[in-house]
């Protein structure tokens, strides 16, 4: 049988299966599909909750994915595969080797490329019928309204509180559904917001991001510090793509879709990995969607997200109680080992990955919980120099402050830049993870 004859046979079969669906009510979704579209999307059109009308709506829709990392890569793969008509991708970062275990759009050959360029290149290779739009910059309040406006659904695939609040506000102002997800270590969470038109309790009860999280967390661990399992963040990204497809298809088959769910929690190490918890409803005091909102389309650009999220300096700070990695190397070469202590304050998992020779391991939480042993206290207070090191120089700075204030050990120095700086500047053979 020729290829064209096989395609025609599949079309006849699909039309027979689709003939049982209710007649189209809207001329906008009564368009015909191409032979290629019938073949490519036939399996998902057989699903009652999508059907031919839903497939045409997917083709006419646009989705913006902000962040092309561990969440964005699987979401983009499945949105492109499903036939979304237009996919926008926002990301300012470049592909690195450490991305590859979980960012499934990229290969070794893409290292050093902008993620938006590498992603679109791979997506276009898989489905060239989609319109792809690249936004190769970090989304700020200056650009957010312009970029987000006009998209039907937005996926928040970022990893910072500032970007989450910014996207939460701009999507609410523009009345665009937002699908927010996050993942860390072995757990993930998913939340669908601004979906008032599908909420069974009425538009007034649909919350925005600020309604659910009115204040930012005081501290957020990053994947680069706390770690992440690839399949965990991949699961969250896949669920984001699924929710986007559901939102778009619901316009064709509203009778098949129920109320907006609460927050979905995923714990990959649990014997019951999925559960849903109820979230707050729309809050009348909300700054964005409350009765008297202060964050509006007119005032959006004036809002200070950096200040609201308590963003502080995260780069190495040189003060009188610091030492550079070059100075530490000089200590190793010129001082006797009994003249100083090198104390590594990373957690046990990181210390097991790699450490400098002769390091003494005392995790930061031992200091902060005041669980130092008498021997450790005596060591820190004797006349030797204390050089405190961690991965980037941030936790070690906290440890130096604690030791100085609580033990009075003034001969205590933070190694700025930490082990990452040691690897880049002193010993390229030392692992950087």
Plain-language structure description:
This protein is of the alpha/beta class. The chain contains 17 helices and 13 strands. The strands form 2 sheets. Strands 3-2-1-4-5-6-7-8 form an 8-stranded mixed β-sheet, sandwiched between helices. A 5-stranded parallel β-sheet has the order 9-13-12-10-11. Helix 4 (about 70-80) links the parallel strand 1 and strand 2 (about 85-90). Helix 1 (about 5-20) packs across helix 2 (about 35-45) and helix 4 (about 70-80) runs parallel beside helix 10 (about 230-250). The chain is elongated.
Unreliable stretches, pLDDT < 50, 5 or more residues? 21-30, 198-203, 313-318
Secondary structure tally: strands? 13
Per DSSP, the total helix count is 17
Q: C-alpha Rg, in Å?
A: 26 Å
Keywords:
433 residues, 8-stranded mixed beta sheet, 5-stranded parallel beta sheet, 17 helices, alpha/beta
Topology, element by element:
Layout (H helix, E strand, L loop, with lengths): L2 H16 L16 H11 L5 H10 L1 E5 L5 H11 L3 E5 L24 H12 L4 E5 L8 H5 L4 E4 L4 H13 L4 E7 L2 E7 L15 H4 L10 H4 L3 H20 L13 E5 L6 E4 L27 H4 L13 E2 L1 H10 L5 E5 L3 H6 L5 E3 L2 H5 L5 H8 L3 E5 L5 H13 L4 E4 L2 H8 L8
Parallel strand pairs: 1-2, 1-4, 2-3, 4-5, 9-13, 10-11, 10-12, 12-13
Antiparallel strand pairs: 5-6, 6-7, 7-8
Helix pairs in contact: 1-2, 4-10
């Amino acid at each position: 049988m020729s290829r064209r004859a096989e395609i025609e046979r599949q079309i006849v079969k699909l039309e027979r299966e689709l003939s049982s669906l209710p007649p189209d009510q809207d001329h906008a979704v009564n368009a015909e599909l191409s032979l290629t579209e019938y073949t490519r999307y036939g399996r998902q059109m057989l699903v009652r909750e999508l059907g031919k009308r839903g497939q045409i709506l997917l083709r006419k829709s646009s989705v913006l994915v902000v962040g092309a990392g561990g969440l964005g890569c699987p979401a983009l793969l499945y949105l492109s595969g499903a036939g979304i008509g237009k996919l926008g991708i926002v990301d300012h970062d470049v592909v690195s080797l450490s991305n590859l275990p979980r960012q499934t759009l990229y290969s070794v050959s893409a290292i050093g490329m902008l993620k938006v360029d590498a992603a679109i290149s791979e997506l276009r290779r898989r489905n060239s019928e989609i319109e792809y739009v690249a936004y190769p910059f970090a989304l700020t309040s200056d650009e957010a309204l312009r970029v987000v406006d006009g998209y039907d659904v937005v996926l928040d695939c970022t990893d910072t509180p500032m970007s989450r609040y910014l996207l939460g506000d701009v999507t609410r102002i523009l009345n665009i559904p937002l699908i927010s997800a996050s993942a860390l270590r072995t757990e993930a969470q998913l939340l669908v917001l601004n979906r008032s038109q599908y909420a069974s309790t009425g538009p007034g009860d649909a919350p925005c991001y600020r309604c659910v999280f009115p204040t930012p967390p005081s501290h957020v661990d990053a994947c680069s510090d706390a770690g992440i399992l690839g399949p965990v963040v991949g699961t969250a990204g896949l669920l984001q793509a699924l929710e986007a497809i559901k939102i778009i298809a619901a316009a064709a088959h509203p009778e098949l879709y129920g109320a907006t769910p609460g927050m979905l929690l995923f714990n990959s190490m649990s014997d019951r990995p999925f559960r849903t918890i109820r979230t707050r409803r729309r809050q009348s005091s909300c700054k964005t969607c409350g009765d008297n909102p202060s964050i509006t389309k007119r005032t959006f650009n004036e809002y200070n997200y950096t200040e609201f999220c308590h963003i502080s300096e995260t780069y190495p700070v040189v003060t009188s109680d610091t030492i550079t990695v070059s100075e530490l190397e000089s200590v190793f070469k010129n001082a006797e080992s009994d003249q100083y202590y090198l104390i590594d304050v990373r957690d046990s998992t990181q210390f097991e990955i790699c450490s400098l020779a002769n390091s003494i391991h005392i995790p930061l939480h031992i200091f902060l919980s005041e669980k130092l042993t008498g021997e450790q206290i005596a060591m820190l207070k004797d006349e030797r120099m204390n050089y405190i090191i961690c991965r980037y120089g941030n936790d070690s700075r906290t440890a130096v402050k604690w030791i100085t204030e609580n033990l009075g050990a003034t001969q205590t120095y933070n190694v700025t830049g930490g082990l990452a700086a040691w690897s880049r500047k002193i010993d390229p053979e030392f692992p950087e993870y």
